[in-house]
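Rotation project, supervised by the postdoc (A.L.). Task for the rotation student: set up a whole-complex structure prediction and record inputs and outputs verbatim in this book. Inputs entered:
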Amino acid sequence: MNYSKATDQKWQEEWKKNGLYKYNPNSEKPKYYTMEMFSYPSGAKLHLGHWFNFAPADSFARFKKMQGYNVFHPMGFDAFGLPAENYAIKTGIHPEDSTMKNIETMKRQLAEMGGSYDWDYSVQTCMPNYYKWTQWLFVKLYKAGLAYKKEAPVNWCDSCKTVLANEQVIDGCCERCGTVVVKKKLSQWFFKITDYAEELLNDLDKIDWPESTKKVQQNWIGRSTGSEVTFKTEDGKHDITVFTTRPDTLNGVTYVVLAPESSLVDEIMTEDRKKAVEEYRAETAKLTEIDRLSTERPKTGTFTGAYAINPLTGDKVPIWIADYVLEDYGTGFVMAVPAHDERDFAFASKYNLPIKRVINSKDGKEPELPYCEYGVLVNSGKYDGLTSEEAKEKITADLEAQGVGKKTVNYRLKDWLVSRQRYWGAPIPVIYCDDCGTVVVPEEDLPVKLPYDVEFKPDGVSPLKKSKEFMNCTCPKCGKPATREADTLDTFVCSSWYQLRYPDANNDKEIFNKETVNKMNPVDCYVGGKEHAAMHLIYTRFMTKALRDMGYLNFDEPFSKLIHQGLILGPDGNKMSKSKGNTVSPDEYVEKYGSDVFRMYLMFGFEYRKGGPWDDKGIEAMTKYFARVEALVQKLKEVEGNSTEISLAEEDLLRLKNQTIKAMAKNIEDFQFNTAIARSMELLNGINAYINGGKINKEVFTNCVETLLKVLAPLAPHFMEEEWHVLGKTSSIHNEAWPEINEKELQGGNIVIPVQVNGKLKAQVEVSSNLSKEEILEAVKKDEKVARLIENNEIVKEIYVPGKILNLVVKK
RNA sequence: GCUGAUGUGGCGAAAUUGGUAUACGCACAGCACUCAAAAUGCUGCGAGAAAUCAUGUGGGUUCGAGUCCCACCAUCAGCACCA
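Outputs recorded:
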């Protein structure tokens, strides 16, 4: 076989030289914006997962180009983040140096893959010309009231003196030193994504995304309707407002629970309970949120000594704290109805708190407690006899009349915490002035540059705080000495808007040109991993909507269509990881077989959306397929042709050709590359069978081979370019249009009609494709086998699905 | 526990969305070429002697079910004291 890695290199150089993949922003053709989630340059190289994600997606982009679109298919790098910083702490290599080196390597590998990217439209989020605009966005969000500061807990390792990411906390301990991780409260920045909760939920209907991903987002947003109810403390000094989806059970409240860290606890707890409360709080601080939410752990809590008054009944109920109540979900306070809630029942049983039945089942029976279904109210005074549904309305209305309750919607979605106590990120553009307070950096002073020379080894102080040069500044308002915010932005902020930047990536004057951004967006097809279903994909939707409301964008959703590629597992069926030692490097395969064989094998051997365990058994078969294509092209060059007629053999071949074009277009559009390649193999087999028949119509033969090369061009770009030139063509195959379907040729020839009797396949009858139902019936009844089956029976029904099947229903 | 996905030959998988189940490959076997092997090409390849039976299992709807409905089993993934 002639195809090899050298073929790849030859054409990569050629394409680069003549700018084949230069994007033309002024093209008259309709735009098609498709991109893959940009890669994170943490490892030094592209891994198999990258290939499986990028190579088929690149083929898709090439296909859209052949279909006549002005395809915009950019690639960039999500370059800030924790791994580069950790690597730096371990090796002493500066994150900027390692990151830039990795990016260069990955770019080279993406070129070796044959990626049709125009690198003039690329972003690297760690470059000042990019993060300047990330910071600009922060400023805009702040001015729009969508960025604010509040206290929030972080994971703290007291031994390493550093804040830990959730990922660095293993079983509640620091991954580096094993010390128990505690919660520490810091003042941090948030984006008000909850303002958009309702729209983020509703607009899921507008987009062509996998249903499972939409469900993840629905759960993440977690809308629930219920009521807010305000309990007063016994002394009347404090309000305790709870959210409940079950106001019908309000008569059964026997205690109230607060999140242990709530500041209200300090104000209401009695002197004699202080010690117990503080001890309990210290225990709670050691727990991760995962622990606190774990169902495995026994429920614990302690009494605060204070009491609250049930606004409906006037009952005095004790106020407890318990770690299963989280400060940032709902109001941070919970009313407990042990008779009708599993968790409250377990808690009340453990601490001997009263359990009061207020709901019976609708058939009037007294079910075993806890009974969590809807039913009929009992022991509820004037509400007795109402159904749960009725009581919810009535009780909420009564509370509202007294000003101690109202109907409300609650979301699980929390505001987006964007502060990171890290070095390798975009500095938060905020200045603190003794006189003026919190001042955002004026737009004209951006970017706030991340200083290179900083001590980022963990020692209890945020890295940027140790740079006097960075920290000390003057207040933009009053000109007095001031200090900068030392935290950096979550990298999800950087990635929440990059698709808006690509079409205008080199614009120094503004974040993007308003006309360009609205012309190119939304992204028509976005491809990336399922693991981003919640975070990245919801943050980007939020940012799009926020920018729209500020008047910059005129669309609502960033990604019209979304595709998730599957995961390639290790040969052992487990997720590939260095620690498991089951990783597979794409490089050696590319070296040995060439990029096209490798990418074709990835597409043919695995379902794109599904992935599966790695297995290279079939890769040789792809090499074999390439050799057969080469042989066919060679044959076409050599053969003279000995016929000009269009007989049945030619008609059949031409029909196959048209079927192939049609099927492959549909398959590639749907990211079903495995079947697309199968169809191309069928065409190749068909052409081979034709030429082995002896009689060759050169024109038909040429037409079919050229078609085969064209439909394979997006899938095996280097190899097809080579074969195209072997045929004597001088221009690139990648400037060819996707072959057109000839309807006449598609309809020609004979068809085989499967014949069923009573739903069972009994015969196949070959007929001309343009016969009517009656004519076909007639032909079928002449068939020997069919005739025998219907001989002594009555035909009750004849069902004919044109071109597909004939079913005769017979009765004896 | 909840939610979602998946289940088809020895293997990867396909099936125009209710219309010939197993396309296209891998592996395997036989034949041709060869002194021989490799490579290549051709042929066969779900089970069964056959009638028939087969898409995780059991029902149902239909002229017709891998596909739709009900129940169940298995595997994988995500979420979870969410008030």
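Student's summary: The first strand of chain A starts at residue 31 and ends at 36.
Supervisor addendum: The radius of gyration of chain A is 34 Å.
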